[in-house]
Specification:
Number of strands: 10
CATH topology: TIM Barrel
Number of domains: 1
CATH class: Alpha Beta
Helix content: 25-40%
Number of helices: 11
Oligomer: single chain
CATH superfamily: NADP-dependent oxidoreductase domain
Length: 322
Amino acid sequence: MEYRPFGRTGIEVSAIGYGAWGIGQTQWIGADDDESLRALQHAIELGVNFIDTARAYGDGHSERLVGQVTGATSERVYVATKVPPMNLVWPAPAGVHVDEVYPGEHIRRSTEESLANLGLETIDLQQLHVWQDDWIGQGDWLDTVKELRDEGKIRFFGVSVNDHEPETAVRAVREDLVDSVQVIYNVFDQSPADELLPACAEHSVGVIVRVALDEGGLTGRIHAGSEFPDGDFRSHYFGGDRAREVEEHVRAIMEDLEIELDDMAAVALRFALSEPAVSTVIPGMRSVRNVDRNVGVADGHGLPADQVAALRAHRWERNFYE
């Protein structure tokens, strides 16, 4: 397992972390708690020391599972969670005052609930689950974050960047308001590399990459006939003609790099890990099999420079929400 500096925090995190959205049993449908617990434990046994969850994942269900496993291990595992927006709107729209989304009392109440769910006295990394740079200088959210740190309830603070809008967090990074950012970065959505990732490198801010596999699209397993369980968000994400388009884009990548279908997921993860600013990549791993597959790329070997250059050409600007 490769370990990387987590920005300026002084800690090192596993190159592959554990993304715990999928085990919350909402939006990602089909998780089995027993298998989720086995997957979490197996990941820790293989050296994963960073787990990212959120209070919104199953209304605390994911946090409780994470707490059950981390509370029973002697290994040092860093736990990150998130405060949901009070107005329950994802992503954060522009023009909304922070008091409608993150008043200080809401951040405190959510943090204390997460501490109870996780069975912890201190959250290693508390994050705001949505973000807009317009909120800098508004409200009392920052005062509350500082108070929670002073009280020992959180160690570090970060923001989870709006989906496909990395520009909305650049100012927070440049003004040294955050220890980390969590952002979508993958072969298709390379936009964080334009401005956000260079800013993070310059200011020693940790970078957590989510959706490195494009919600499964970059595994090569999504095709024109793909179907998802009722209530699963992927039925919208790959709705309309998107599944077919994803299949075509993945086929073009395979032909360009001369790789097989079974190589796609590893190549996609290694692409994200090849970015020097990235601290950890957090794929969802709801099964032991997926843990073995994903952790296998955390060996410190990124992609060859020629493959990274080739993948740059597969950047795909698309509308994700209509």
